[in-house]
Amino acid sequence: MDKYEIFKKNINNLIGINLDYYKEKQMKRRITSLMNRNGFEDFDEYFMALKSNKDMLEQFINHLTINVSEFYRNPAQWSILEKEILPELIRKNDNKPLKVWSAACSTGEEPYSLVMLLSKFYDLKDIKVLASDIDEEAIEKAKLGIYSEKALVNLPKEFKIKYFDKVGNSFKIKDIIKNQVIFDRIDLLKDPFPINIDLITCRNVMIYFTDEAKELLYDKLYRSLSKNGVLFVGSTEQIILPERYNFKTIKTFFYTKIN
Ligand SMILES: C[S@@+](CC[C@H](N)C(=O)[O-])C[C@H]1O[C@@H](n2cnc3c(N)ncnc32)[C@H](O)[C@@H]1O
């Protein structure tokens, strides 16, 4: 077994992240560059260092998980969500509150965007969004809810004014939005999923997965959705032949179940 194979096994034992499910070339390149930056040339030595150095391990996890996000990422799709997907979903749900899950929420921009958007349809007190990620540090940042102005460029102005406090050069999300989000750590490739979810956003995470991991994920997402539930994916993550996984396309990037 080559050293990288052993490294992947060791990492899985140490932190429970299975790197076999991530696209090999891309992941190996990322890890090698970080390893070299830390002054190591050899995977065995690097692993020994990660095992004994908590800061280095945290940096490694951070580097792996790629947390880039922003509010209303790909705004045209959020507009379709608002104008076409949500009204239909709410109608089919007899106007009852929806169960919503942001399934790789990173530092919180996506679940908070969902709460703000849903506030156009419901009282804030009736909105609940589950937000999860594999990366606990990202979740901690999400709970803090402090963002640079850059993260807000695509967010509708009205939301920026209404739901943020300016703190120095940063923007802090108000508690009335924050309180409607429940954070949890869920590894999409390993952990059980919640059920009966009406809207799942699973965006800009599948691109890192192998085809095998994606298939596993589609199946889990299918079972997690309610009867009329909708899956919203990232702008490079269209499902090829969705029918194979019992999904049908409602709009590009939006899928529902073939029941
Ligand atoms: C690029 S961010 C996407 C954030 C947000 N969904 C968006 O579209 O802006 C990718 C996130 O996926 C998370 N991630 C990677 N592998 C994961 C896994 N196996 N389970 C859950 N989350 C994972 C990372 O920690 C990271 O926060």
From TrEMBL:
Top-level enzyme category: transferase
Signal peptide: none
Protein name, UniProt field: protein-glutamate O-methyltransferase
Record SMART domains: MeTrc
Catalytic activity reported: L-glutamyl-[protein] + S-adenosyl-L-methionine = [protein]-L-glutamate 5-O-methyl ester + S-adenosyl-L-homocysteine
Domain CheR-type methyltransferase: 1-259
Native organism taxonomy: Bacteria, Bacillati, Bacillota, Tissierellia, Tissierellales
Gene3D superfamilies found in the cross-reference section: Chemotaxis receptor methyltransferase CheR, N-terminal domain (1.10.155.10), Vaccinia Virus protein VP39 (3.40.50.150)
Matches recorded under InterPro entries: Bact_Chemotaxis_MeTrfase (IPR050903), CheR_C (IPR022642), CheR_MeTrfase (IPR000780), CheR_N (IPR022641), CheR_N_sf (IPR036804), SAM-dependent_MTases_sf (IPR029063)
Record key words, sorted: Methyltransferase, S-adenosyl-L-methionine, Transferase
UniProt record, GO biological process: methylation
Record-linked PROSITE patterns: CHER (PS50123)
EC number: 2.1.1.80
Any Pfam family: CheR
